[in-house]
Amino acid sequence: MTTTDLIKTSPTRVNLDILGYVGLAAVLIIAPLLTSNAYHLNVFVIMAVNAILATGLAIVVRAGRLSLAQASFGGVGGYTTGILTTTLSVPFWVALPIGGLLAAAIGVLLGLTSLRLRGFYFAIATFTFSQLAIVILRAWTDVTGGMSGMFGLPHPTGFLGFDFSDPLQYYYLVLIFLFVAVLIYYACTAGTSFGRGLSVLGEDEVLARSIGVSATRFRLLAFAISSGIGGIAGSFGAHFIQGVSPSDIQPIVSIFIVVMVMAGGAKTLTGPIIGAVIMTMVPELLRASAQWSMVFYGVFLLLYVFLFREGLLPIVSKAAKRLLARFSNGTMSNSSAVPVQFLSADQCKPDISPTPVGSGTFMAFQGLGCSFGSLRVLSDLNWGVEAGCINGLIGPNGAGKTTFFNVMTGIAPLTDGTVRWHGKDILPVPEEMARRGVARTYQHARVLENHTVSETISLCAELSKRNVSDAHLNWLISVMNLKHLANVNGKDLTHYQRRLTSIAMAMASNPELLLLDEPLAGLDDTETRELSTLIAKIQRETGNTILLIEHKLSEVMALCSVLTVLDHGQIIAHGTPAEVASNEDVIEAYLGHE
Amino acid sequence: MNNTPILSLENVQSHHRGAQNLSGISFEVQKGELVSILGANGAGKTSLLGVIAGQFRASNGVIKLEGRDVSGLPPNIINKLGIGYAPQNHPIFDSLTVKESLMLGAPNQKVDVLALFPNLERKHNQRAASLSGGERQMLSMAMALQNDPKICIFDEPSSGLAPIIVTQVFDAIRKVVEAGITVLMVEQNARAALKIADRAYVMEHGKLTLSGSAAELANNDEIRRAYLGM
Question: How far from each other are the two terminal CA atoms of chain A, in whole angstroms?
Fold first, then answer.
């Protein structure tokens, strides 16, 4: 019994990835030994510096923001160590961390003002910053050398017999820092709880916040790390060519770094390195005729846009995995989040909801209102959720039911009134509500498209920072009939499977209050019956509180202990299902006369 | 000429990711009819509507609009030729107001679209982004009625609607049909669908397995058990 319950995670995936990393590291270590040409070695060093810049940039790209200022952060590092080592005679190894930290600090300042911007707007803000940096560096001639920049920067001081004026030794020095950068990047993707939160944030911000990820804090930290790594790379670049000038931080340089990340594969660990290798090495190989190098760029970018928008590395690894999958039954997932650890059937047990039974209303509202500009959606709601049972919220379309959920979870503004949580006044903020124990689903089931069901559920438990046992997650997966879907990616689920998964995601944090927004909409009769039985079962076995928005009346009447009816943003009735069903106002506004 | 069906499908097949989701569908819709397709989720109902509206390509078979082969034409041309389509996920333009959304195509000559949906009429100056889930659905249906379609295709018009509004929406559909616009709809709410439809088909695993007048099907024991919960 116990062995059949275990779901085997595919070992192929992990092995193949590790094989790829070791192979790439070996190539990076061995390749420069095959040439003694000083010029070629210079190209290797520049390539490694670019790879660090790109790896740093990939961190903030993962968080869902595209920066056009990575070269500028490199410039901050280069100029800082340049000024410190020449004008102030500070040793390089003391100056280096200062350069990195200053770049990170400037990243934080830029992030505080502009990380809330999305898409193009953030890119434009960082572009503006990069222009501003050039203007300052040019104008501050006394310190920065103005237009012509600084030259004569010293090589890093050698130690243990190493001499970093030798390009080969310099290359290995930079390579070590590249490996460190990759480790940090790994920590920012799947290696740590922070990293896993960040990748969820990059995928779906609304969902990430509602499962407990603090968007602002996570993104700011990611941007600081990304800029800091950029600063370090910039120092190594500047002290290798022994000079730094405003032309090193032109927008085109930043754009090349963006192309390295994107074309290599922004969602992979080593994609940015592959991008840096291609974008640095190949044009150098074609340098004999300058026009050919431009043709190469053109063709490469066209191929990227048309054939491998996910990046070069993902298509190569996908092909390799498909080949391997013929020999074994490996599944594919492009995340490396930890899936739920499966236990034997007798160890599946729900965590009991932390709300004491009979504690009355632990979440209540007084005079709650919500307006968007002049549009008033909710006004003067006085209501409290009944603990330990299923509460129903019904009302005509456009009555404000979903907006009510949004106000409770901090997505929509609380423009009037107060929200009380266990007797204390609070201002709902999505990630804080998730940690307090308010979990929700959305009308159109939101799941993590690029994570498997099992990974998603364990991520939701982890990121909520709430106390959840493995037994609870196992119980959840088996009670929601998701066991056979454990290794399926979110984007491959059917409509009904997405619904089940989204409810399991919300339940994964063992919430005190579960908000379900039309869980039965769009389901056929068999599915409707099955899911409403499941909702009742979840409530019964965990003892938690559920607030349910639903239009399928026969299910609402059977499931709910209390019903509240909303119309035009106001409560028009409240009571047991029977009382509500016979209320004239409700019949008029909602049920209609038969 | 009068006997040419407004819409006819002959042995239409389609595939999604290598798996067949429509395996040989043939049926006809006559002018002025209200035809409903019933079936469980995953039966292929949405794929069928998508293929008719030109959103997906059929791998085999012929789709004719008033005798003219329209299979394989792009969706915008199919709309111009007279098929209005309100898809299941009701895509609308968030930045436009309700009124503006209904000025994207030519206004319907046969019915006053806004009068059909009182909820939308009330909010005609509001941006679509501020509409609730059910209102988005109604707007999507209203948009499908632009450009004077000969036949309108609605994918689950009642899903996510309050009971009173389900009644309103079905009344609206009936009015559309009375105005001379043929309607083909997919519905989960079999009871309500059979109440207003003229004819219905039952779809299972990519095939039409039963057909008949709405009254016949409503009295069919198999249907009553599977879809009406009796």
Answer: 53
3-state secondary structure of B163: helix
Q: Are the Cβ atoms of B162 and A395 closer than 8 angstroms?
A: yes
Chain A residues with CB within 8 Å of chain B CB: 372, 375, 394-403, 443-444, 494-496, 518, 521-527, 551, 553, 589-592
Which amino acid belongs to residue A284? E
Of all helices (H) and strands (E), which one includes residue B103? none
Q: Do A398 and B227 touch (CB under 8 A)?
A: no
Cβ of B112: how many Cβ atoms within 10 Å? 11
pLDDT band with cut points at 50, 70 and 90 for residue A545 = very high
Model ipTM?
A: 0.74
Are A76 and A205 in contact by the 8 Å Cβ rule? The answer is no
Residue with the two structure tokens 């002049």: A374
pTM of the predicted structure, to 2 decimals: 0.80
Distance from CA of B24 to the nearest CA of A (A): 23
* CA–CA min distance B98, chain A (Å): 14
Q: Residue A238: phi, psi to the nearest 5?
A: -65, -40
Share of chain A above pLDDT 70, in %: 92
> What whole-number distance in Å separates Cα of residue B194 and Cα of residue A255?
59
**Is residue A531 predicted with pLDDT exceeding 90?**
yes
**pLDDT of the residue at A594:** 54
How many whole angstroms separate alpha carbon A220 and alpha carbon A442?
Answer: 27
CB contact under 8 Å between B165 and A553, yes or no, is no
Q: CA of A396, closest CA in chain B: separation in Å?
A: 5
Q: What are the residue boundaries of the structural domains of chain A, listed by start?
A: 11-317, 347-591
Count how many pairs of residues, chain A against chain B, have C-beta atoms within 8 Å: 82
Nearest CA in chain B to A493: B42
Q: How far apart are the first and last CA of chain B?
A: 42
| pLDDT for res A9 | 44
Q: So what's the architecture of B7-226 in CATH?
A: 3-Layer(aba) Sandwich (3.40)
Q: Is B41 on the interface with A (CB under 8 A)?
A: yes
Architecture of the structural domain at A347-591: 3-Layer(aba) Sandwich (3.40)
